[in-house]
Amino acid sequence: MVTPKDFNSDYQNQWCPGCGNFGILEAMKDALATQGIPPEKILIISGIGQAAKTPHFLNCNMFHSLHGRALPLALGAKLANHDLKIIVNSGDGDCYGEGGNHFMHAIRRNTDLTLLVHNNQVYGLTKGQASPTSGLGMTTSLQPDGVISEPFNGPAVALSLGAGFVARGFSGNKDHLSRLIQKAMDHKGVSLIDIMQPCVSFNKINTFEWYKERVYEADNPDPENLPQAMKLAMEWGDAIPIGIFYQTKKPDFTSRIKGLEKGPLIFRNYDPEKANIILQDS
Ligand SMILES: Cc1ncc(C[n+]2csc(CCOP(=O)(O)OP(=O)(O)O)c2C)c(N)n1
Ligand code: SF4
Ligand SMILES: [Mg+2]
């Protein structure tokens, strides 16, 4: 039997006390243990940022990569071994800003992975500058007159790009988030959970209290109804829905590749002579 404790790691955690990332970490341990997936069967990949430190604090295979570059690495790992369960932990800056291009193409390709975006609406690691999701008018050390650009809505963009699973979660509701993560991991193809994650040090607007007054649970009763999903994704302000906004089945990237039908590449024999022939011909 796998328990949440099996995922405890020895790395020293230096997130600020009270950070919303702790709720996400606990929800992940709970989800992985409830699913009974042993640590060695999971690969967690991240970019750079506070969110991207998450894999250090989980005892399983991990790759802490470059800013915005977790998704292409995940695609490479999936091509090498499409039996792996892959989770990507990314921040709002990492995924929607620096890695925005990869976000778009991971959805278009429908790479089979679960993408957890820790959305604290700031660049936490670099001390609180505005991120793509910061609200209009929010002041920061770098935006003393307030943010002047419209915030990026990850779930709405994912829906418009044809993502097969789109959800929003809240790090202050661990049980609900654990359920979302499990559903996302069961989904074949890319699954996005945009997680509202208070940054207690640098975001004094979108705090736990702010969210608790607004968040309500609302799965889309007809999960393939795209207009209804878009309505939920766009709802923001006095009331903010959390839940599964959209889910539909479609072939994932590796299942469309004929050469992978015989099983994962890592279990095949590597013949350097054949590779040399291709290299010489090219
Ligand atoms: C190519 C590159 N550009 C910029 C940085 C500096 N940098 C490190 S983390 C970060 C922002 C992280 O913000 P986010 O992804 O929202 O993560 P958070 O720390 O808020 O969890 C930036 C700009 C970097 N490390 N590499
Ligand atoms: S700076 Fe913000 S996101 Fe980073 S650990 Fe502290 S509270 Fe968490
Ligand atoms: Mg952030």
Descriptive key words:
globular; binds thiamine diphosphate; two-stranded antiparallel sheet; 282 residues; binds magnesium ion; 8-stranded mixed sheet; alpha/beta; single chain; Rossmann fold; binds iron/sulfur cluster
Describe this structure in words.
The protein is an alpha/beta fold. The protein has a single domain, classed as Rossmann fold, CATH 3.40.50. 31% of the residues lie in helices and 18% in strands. The strands form two sheets. An eight-stranded mixed sheet has the order 2-1-3-4-8-7-10-9, with helices on both faces. A two-stranded antiparallel sheet has the order 5-6. Strand 5 and strand 6 form a beta hairpin. The longest helix has 15 residues. The chain starts with 20 loop residues before the first helix and ends with a helix. The protein binds thiamine diphosphate, iron/sulfur cluster and magnesium ion (MG). The site of thiamine diphosphate has 18 residues, from helix 3 and strand 5.
Secondary structure blueprint with pairings:
Elements: H1 21-35, E1 42-46, E2 61-64, H2 70-80, E3 85-91, H3 92-98, H4 100-109, E4 113-119, E5 122-123, E6 129-130, H5 154-160, E7 165-170, H6 174-186, E8 190-196, H7 208-212, E9 215-217, H8 226-234, E10 240-247, H9 272-281
Parallel strand pairs: 1-2, 1-3, 3-4, 4-8, 7-8, 9-10
Antiparallel strand pairs: 5-6, 7-10
Bound molecules: thiamine diphosphate, iron/sulfur cluster (SF4) and magnesium ion.
Magnesium ion binds at residues 49, 91-93, 120, 122-124, 131.
